[in-house]
Write a structure and sequence with these properties.
CATH architecture of the largest domain: 3-Layer(aba) Sandwich
Oligomer: single chain
Order of helices and strands: EHHEHEEEHEHEHEHEHEEHHH
CATH topology of the largest domain: Rossmann fold
Largest sheet: 6 strands, parallel
Radius of gyration: 22 Å
Length: 327
């Protein structure tokens, strides 16, 4: 059933509706998500009433119905509108999207140009060093990581990071995971291959992946830590996994075969027949890993722990959207 803004009348104060579902939105509503709390405080300071709404398919219609109201989407569902703003966690903990276009695979970062030539190498080295200390040194990722006892990855190996096999809802994969894996195996040369299943891999998908497990032939399926694998990897391959972003911290080239917003500093392929050429390019091309981390995270995301900068960014975005102080 359609959800209307029943409370709203022509003479009421403009409202900021936070639409979402799941743990991030629920914690945000309870005041336990720093970025959402900061955005809420900025809006309240500007005189906006705050309401939390469970996400529905009517968000876009509601946004178009009354441009006075801001609609903050705390979800990956695409919603178009000049008064729509997305606010969700990014790929690394502590970094958030504050985006007028979308999130992750559909964010505005997807069409931004990465120009490393004019960027400070010293600052990039410092910024990347802090990320490595926080994530690599502490073996931290979105999901808990285990360092398998007695497992030592072979240097220069190709690491494949599958996700769900089902076609994603809000973006595109350019091929299937079996096609990707088959193509990598056919073009690996003498390199060893490690396949790390996703923690949420379906049982039937895991069975398919285990069918590739043949250590004697140089192909292993392993639960070893992402950072443990990437520390020795020659290349990281996936359709769209954010592990390819973590690979940037390790200085490992990525090969991606899906619609992502972090494609700028890796090789993108759209056909299984291109896998061999993509791997060859990944091994010989020079990439600007540290500068890319600055471009994507320092310049593209909001860091709530840097409160002053985060508040300034939020204020600037809201003003640009026309949501200044309400009198």
């Amino acid at each position: 059933m359609a959800v209307g803004l029943n409370r709203q009348t022509a003479d009421q104060v403009p409202t900021a509706f936070f639409h979402g579902r799941g743990p991030v939105w629920e914690k945000g509503r309870a005041g336990r998500m720093d970025c959402l709390s900061l955005l809420r405080s900025v809006l309240m300071d500007r005189g906006y009433v705050i309401e939390w709404r469970e996400l529905s398919d009517d968000v876009e219609r509601l946004a178009q119905a009354d441009p006075r109201h801001l609609h903050v989407v705390v979800d990956d569902m695409p919603v178009a509108g000049d008064n729509v703003l997305f606010c969700v966690p990014s790929y690394l903990n502590g970094f958030w999207y504050l985006d007028r276009v979308g999130t992750r695979n559909n964010s505005a970062m997807r069409t931004r140009l990465f120009r490393p030539q004019g960027m400070s190498r010293a600052y990039a080295r410092e910024f990347a060093g802090k990320l490595r200390a926080k994530f690599i040194d502490d073996n931290r990722s979105k999901f808990d990581q285990e360092l398998v006892d007695g497992f030592t990855p072979e240097p220069g190996a190709i690491c494949i990071f599958p996700q769900r096999f089902k076609a994603p809802k809000y973006y595109r994969h350019y091929m299937s995971y079996p096609d990707l894996i088959d193509g990598v195996i056919a073009n690996r040369g003498t390199r060893r291959i490690y396949i790390k299943p996703h923690p949420r891999q379906k049982t039937e998908e895991l069975a398919v992946l285990m069918g590739y497990h043949d250590p004697g032939a140089g192909i292993e399926v392993t639960t070893h830590s992402i950072h443990g694998l990437l520390a020795q990897a020659g290349a990281a391959v996936s359709l769209s996994s954010a592990v390819l972003v973590e690979a940037q911290m390790h200085g490992v080239p990525g090969v991606v075969a899906g619609q992502v917003d972090f494609h700028h500093n890796m090789v993108v392929i759209r056909e299984p027949d291109h896998i061999g050429a993509a791997l060859e390019q990944a091994f010989i091309q020079r990439f600007e890993y540290e500068k890319f981390l600055v471009f994507f995270f320092a310049h593209g995301m909001v860091q709530p722990r840097l409160r002053r900068k985060a508040l300034e960014r939020m204020g600037a975005v809201l003003t640009e959207m026309g949501f200044g102080a309400h009198v």
